[in-house]
Write a structure and sequence with these properties.
By secondary structure, this protein is mainly beta. The chain is about 0% helix and about 65% strand. The chain has strands at about 1-5, 10-20, 25-30, 35-40, 45-55, 60-65, 70-75, 75-80, 85-95, 100, 105, 110-115, 120-125, 130-140, 145, 150-155, 155-165, 170, 175-180, 185-190. It is elongated, with a radius of gyration of 26 Å.
């Protein structure tokens, strides 16, 4: 194994060959052959954080592993491990003791509240001129939806009139698009 450190003989940073590893590293400069001991950098410890994963109507208690010097933010995409299964999730809330915060260092986090983003169920309201029908469409979380485009859900063809985002406004302008995991509801007219 090779590392780059400052060599006292060469008076510059050079590549060193690691000869032995214990509490400190014994290294040899590949340029001049000088031997020296350097302090071994400690690797950050990992912390398993309790994670609640919401998966369309059900909640699972899982875990997310973070390094002790990591910072987590609401909106981060992480991988939650639930026994043998793993889910791509988005952090929706961070609990630190009795408080909810938007950002926290890993050691301060009590629980992460998340929702799956790999497979999502999109809620769609299809209006046919007289009445509005609620429809649910299971799709990939990264599937794009575009205002003005045609789609089929539960055997009903419809044109998207606007998209309501989970974390923002309505998207009404023709051609505007977003991915399924960001959508709270799709509004469309039946064709």
């Amino acid at each position: 194994m090779f590392i780059t450190v400052n060599c006292p003989e060469c008076n510059e940073e050079t590549e060193h060959d690691v000869i032995s590893e214990s509490r400190n590293l014994l290294v040899r400069c590949t340029t001049c052959g000088h031997h020296q001991r350097i302090k071994k950098e400690s690797e950050p410890q990992s912390i398993l954080i309790k994670t609640i994963v919401s998966k369309e109507g059900t909640s699972l208690v899982c875990g997310i592993e973070l390094a002790e010097d990591d910072e987590c933010n609401v909106g981060d995409h992480l991988v939650a491990e639930c026994g043998e299964d793993a889910f791509g999730v988005e952090v929706s809330s961070i609990e630190c003791g009795e408080r909810r915060v938007n950002r926290a260092k890993a050691p301060d986090i009590t629980t992460l509240w998340t929702r799956t983003i790999e497979q999502v169920v999109v809620k769609i309201s299809i209006h046919d001129g007289r009445k509005t029908a609620p429809v649910y469409m299971e799709c990939d979380g990264e599937q794009p939806f575009v205002v003005g485009e045609m789609y089929v859900a539960s055997g009903k063809r419809f044109k998207v009139s606007h998209l309501k985002l989970r974390d923002g406004p309505l998207m009404r302008k023709e051609g505007w698009k977003t991915v399924a995991h960001r959508i709270k509801r799709i509004y469309g007219s039946r064709l």
